[in-house]
User: What shape does this take?
Amino acid sequence: MKCRGTGVEFRVGVRAGYATVVAEWLSGCVMFSGFKEVREDEKSQMVGKVFSNVASNYDLMNDFMSGGLHRLWKDRLDFVCIFVLIISFLSSRCFLYFTCSAQFIRLVSKLSPFPGMKHLDVAGGTGRLSLLNEVYVKNAECAGDVAFRILESVNSIKRRALQDPLNDDLQEETRIHVCDINPNMLDVGKNRALEKGLGEDKSLVWVQGDAEALSFEDNSMDGYTIAFGIRNVTHIEKVLSEAYRVLKRGGRFLCLELSHVDIPVFKELYDFYSFSVIPRLGEIVAGDRESYQYLVESIRRFPPQEKFALMIADAGFQKVEYENLVGGVVAIHSGLKI
Amino acid sequence: MVRLSKWLLKEAGTVVDKTLSDILVCPLSKQALRVCEEPPSLISDSIGVSFPIKDGIPCLVPTDGKILDTDDTMKHDNAADDSANNK
Assistant: This one.
């Protein structure tokens, strides 16, 4: 079997090796590489050594093994799951790039918020994020996150700008609408706004509604974001056409969603993680294997980056492009209404 | 002081409602909405449906609307039928 990414050849079950994984993170590249050859009888010893190595170095990715050990890991799945849990608790820094905050920051930066803007954040309550976080961080903890970041970004612009009456008026006109089909998420979002001191801010408008039938006027929004929500809708085309309808000319559509991985070895890693580790983790931590199984399958069912970009273009958007984060685990699609 | 804050909250509530009717439109007909104080709701006169406001959050999901009959009394009907007729 030859690894397309690195050209390293190895025989499954006999020779194990590190693969060179180039994962593109949000701010920079992290490259792991190494090569180790083992005899078959030393395989299990090496696994044990590697895990304790990793545990002490707090770096999971560094010692990941490719295809050859896949079968071995399946037998020790529970061990892997508990190990992953421990590592992630101990090394939250290491998984910073997996967290929603980093992804939301990237999303909001693409928006270029400005005072006086009218923005719509759909499925603002759901804030589902990295695979690891999904297991032990409740979705509600991210309710309203995108909206808060946009508002803080706009407010920071105001502080930097000169104090003049025109800017103050514009600041009054800024409005971030948060729309979600689930009222509980909106309640949590409202409470989080209060905690952050944004409760009195008239700029935040919470509306319960359906992304497929938005209750906003045509050509009324400067920006539209949907983070980890479009995967769960029934009719993606309807959501896209509604987004096109409410956006002003020159308005930007942004969609953050779990997507498809293409990088050779990382893909196998991700598949193993998704189909074996995540449901088992869900079973251990939340006692609910089916939901996480469904979650993982729904991610796979969602159209790949190119196809989704075509769907966005079909809705009428121009300059449709996408950016892969974490090697394609998450993708930000964007389009302009011209 | 307590009376003042209660009055302020009530005022804030009505102000917010008015702002809502300025910003929001009916999700089905995309026409303007009218604020109703008691029970707090947004009414779409174009299709005769009323959408409730719970805890200050307007609930504009099409299936949550209540159809109003001509006498303005509320029926607990699914507005989805109405939307099907409209389409």
Summary: Confidence is low (pLDDT under 50) at residues 72-87 of chain B. Chain B touches chain A through 22 residues (CB under 8 Å). Strands of chain B lie at 34-36, 41-44, 49-54, 57-60, 66-67. Chain B is about 35% helix and 20% strand.
